[in-house]
């Protein structure tokens, strides 16, 4: 694949390894924009890079002329497992309670919720999934989890780990005040997230806000996944 590209921003560590992958696949990395066929950026890049007239490959961007590799189904699925793996690693490192046989709540059962369920099942069978859709509830039960509704959150207070994947408010004062002080809250949803940070602090609950987890914990593997996804997309959008 004889295409030239430029990486003007390496803030996202994955892009270093994505670029290496593309070079090994036959692309050429150049230093000057005028010599490039496309621009490779990370997830949530700075707005100034959108001014380029070349095709731009970036993540989590809704803009004309930008091809969002995070919308690719294969990428999103793989990225969910990188996120789950990093979240579990952070949870183990930050809690004084063993994850083994702990009571765990996963809020949301999309890609990341499902990946978390699989990763956490190695440590404990005491997993509850909080969902709204009946089909998600059925799947969670079939996968071995207990299921609860969002309305029940304020009545369930004995969890030791809570992972949120829902990107809108789900844990506010009403729910947070009922939780054990030893609970570890892990926020994985995109901004503004689902856990009220103010009330978590007010009730002295430990909250980890984890975003961009793959770039922190597995930049090599995650970068190769970006590279492979962009490689596929290039064949569709660049002649």
How would you describe the overall organization of this protein?
- By secondary structure, the protein is of the alpha/beta class.
- It is 36% helix and 17% strand.
- It has 8 helices and 11 strands.
- β10, α6 (197-202) and β11 (206-209) form a beta-alpha-beta unit.
- The mean pLDDT is 94.
Give the DSSP E fraction (strand runs of 2 or more residues). 15-25%
Task: Specify the helix fraction band.
Answer: 25-40%
Oligomer: single chain
Mean pLDDT: 94
How would you characterize the largest beta sheet?
6 strands, parallel
Query: N-to-C terminal Cα separation, in Å?
Result: 11 Å
Number of strands: 11
The side-by-side strand order for the widest beta sheet comes to 8-7-6-9-10-11
**Structural class per helix/strand content?**
alpha/beta
Give me the strand/helix succession: EHEEEEHEHEHEEHEHEHH
What is the number of helices?
A: 8
**Structural Rg:** 20 Å
Give start-end ranges of low-pLDDT stretches.
none
| Structural shape | elongated
Topology:
Layout: E1 4-6, H1 14-24, E2 28-29, E3 38-43, E4 56-59, E5 66-68, H2 73-94, E6 104-107, H3 111-120, E7 127-130, H4 134-142, E8 146-148, E9 161-164, H5 173-176, E10 184-187, H6 197-202, E11 206-209, H7 213-217, H8 219-237
Parallel strand pairs: 1-2, 1-3, 3-4, 4-5, 6-7, 6-9, 7-8, 9-10, 10-11
Helix pairs in contact: 1-8, 2-3, 2-8
């Amino acid at each position: 694949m004889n295409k030239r590209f430029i990486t003007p921003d390496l803030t996202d560590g994955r892009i270093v390894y994505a670029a290496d992958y593309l070079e090994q696949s036959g692309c050429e990395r150049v230093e000057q924009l005028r010599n490039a066929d496309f621009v490779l950026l990370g997830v949530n890049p700075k707005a100034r890079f959108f001014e380029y007239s070349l095709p731009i490959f970036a993540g989590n961007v809704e803009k004309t002329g930008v091809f969002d590799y995070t919308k690719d189904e294969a990428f999103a699925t793989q990225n969910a497992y990188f996120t789950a793996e990093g979240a579990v690693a952070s949870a183990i490192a930050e809690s004084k309670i063993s994850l083994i046989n702990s009571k765990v709540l996963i809020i949301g059962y999309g890609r990341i919720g499902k990946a978390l369920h699989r990763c956490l099942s190695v440590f404990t069978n005491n997993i509850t999934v909080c969902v709204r859709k009946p089909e998600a509830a059925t799947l969670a039960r079939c996968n071995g989890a207990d299921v609860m509704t969002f309305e029940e959150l304020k009545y369930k207070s004995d969890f030791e780990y809570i992972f949120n994947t829902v990107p809108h408010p789900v844990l506010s004062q009403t729910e947070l005040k009922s939780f054990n002080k030893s609970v570890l809250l892990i926020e994985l949803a995109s901004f503004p997230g689902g856990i009220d940070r103010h009330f978590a602090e007010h009730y002295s609950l430990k909250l980890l806000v984890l975003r961009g987890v793959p770039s922190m914990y597995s930049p090599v593997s995650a970068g190769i996944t970006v590279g492979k996804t962009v490689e596929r997309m290039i064949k569709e959008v660049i002649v």
